[in-house]
Amino acid sequence: MKKLLISISTVMIFFLANVIPTQASGNEVIEHGILKNNRVLIPIRAVSQNMGIDVKWNQFQKTAQLTIGETVITLAVQFKRALVNQDRDDFDAPVELIQNTTYVPLRFVSQTMGAEVKWDQKTKRSHRYPG
């Protein structure tokens, strides 16, 4: 019984040691990023939810409209561009719709949405850092 308690305690300490630094640093781990044609795509909702961005989906047109304060960004599936307040912003990979989730290029999020986002190839996760 004593060995079991020690084993459980050791496992709990191991998990807590891994969780605390992530929470303390203020970094957000974004799960389910994908690598397609050497470009990292991340789910737009994963970023938008924690940044206070309003996202509206138009099923008929297959477009997502993001509102960040006074800025309105429109993304269309299979296009390599966004409209940012009606100005065209091109990027190097198309917006993808995969299993009812809209994925956007990581670089677009970093440059257009004002978030510092980095891809960790080893863990296959992206991390958003406070700006």
Detailed description of the structure:
The protein is an alpha+beta fold and 131 residues long. The protein has one domain: Copper Amine Oxidase, Chain A, domain 1 (2-Layer Sandwich). It is 30% helix and 41% strand. It contains 3 helices and 12 strands, in the order αβββαβββββββαββ. The strands form 3 sheets. The chain has a 5-stranded antiparallel beta sheet, with helices on one face. The chain has a 4-stranded antiparallel beta sheet with strand order 2-3-10-9. The chain has a 3-stranded antiparallel beta sheet with strand order 1-12-11. Strand 4 and strand 5 (63-68) form a beta hairpin. It is globular, with a radius of gyration of 18 Å. It starts with a helix and ends with a strand. Mean pLDDT is 73; it is low at 1-27.
Question: Secondary-structure map with pairings?
Answer:
Layout: H1 2-25, E1 28-30, E2 34-36, E3 39-43, H2 44-51, E4 54-58, E5 63-68, E6 71-76, E7 81-84, E8 87-90, E9 96-98, E10 101-105, H3 106-112, E11 116-120, E12 125-129
Antiparallel strand pairs: 1-12, 2-3, 3-10, 4-5, 5-6, 6-7, 7-8, 9-10, 11-12
